[in-house]
Design goal:
The chain is mostly beta strands. The protein is built from 1 helix and 10 strands. Strand 8 and strand 9 form a beta hairpin.
């Protein structure tokens, strides 16, 4: 059994090593929000615009499927309105999605997979005053990623994704148990270096 397992691993490594691995760079726009439960009466959370940028690797597996791990800086957070007051949460993550990618010969693709995010910074800005809020949030975030896109014959692509937060990013308080989860719409462009686009 162990020999079969080792043979399977060696075959997988050989396949990946012989595959046409591609590297890429990407950047785009985030529309981020935080879904809070229970919601406080009179307080609303709205989309906050920010940026994302990073690198990726595409590893062909078999047929039209491939594996695409990424390392991406992602500006997230939300706009908050409560009565006559308003503010903004600016939260920065390093996100590491690992996506299973289906590529059609036409250039269109779909992707899905898990993502872990590592908290870099968190600030609350209100009335022209910015305060550090990193101690309010947990140091990591788990999400599910769903996306579609198109890669041209010039190795230039566009994609659209939704990052669905699965874990509670708020640290538990002594008096209340608040659940806060990220939700991020991402649109962007990317470029693949070397190899064939399709």
């Amino acid at each position: 059994m162990k020999k079969l397992f080792m043979l399977a691993i060696m075959a997988s490594v050989t396949t990946i090593a012989g595959a046409q691995v591609q590297f890429g760079a990407k950047a785009g726009l985030n529309l981020a929000n935080i879904h809070v439960s229970p919601s406080e009466q009179g307080t609303s959370f709205k989309f906050n615009a920010n940026v994302n940028a990073g690198g990726l690797v595409y590893i062909p597996l078999f047929n039209k499927l491939g594996l695409q791990p990424e390392v991406v800086y992602s500006g997230q957070g939300a706009k908050v309105e409560s009565g006559n007051e308003s503010g903004k949460y600016n939260i920065g993550y390093i996100n590491v999605p690992v996506l299973l990618k289906y590529k059609d010969p036409s250039g269109f693709f779909a992707e899905i997979g898990p993502q872990i995010g590592f908290l870099l910074s968190a600030k609350i800005k209100s009335g022209g005053v910015s305060m550090d809020a990193k101690d309010v949030f947990k140091s990591s975030d788990i999400a599910g990623v769903f996306g579609i896109g198109y890669l041209s014959s010039l190795n230039i692509g566009v994609d659209a994704r939704y990052n669905l937060g699965l874990s509670n990013i708020a640290k538990s308080g002594e008096e209340t148990e608040t659940s806060a989860k990220n939700g991020v719409i991402q649109v962007g462009v990317f470029y693949m270096f070397g190899g064939k686009a399709k």
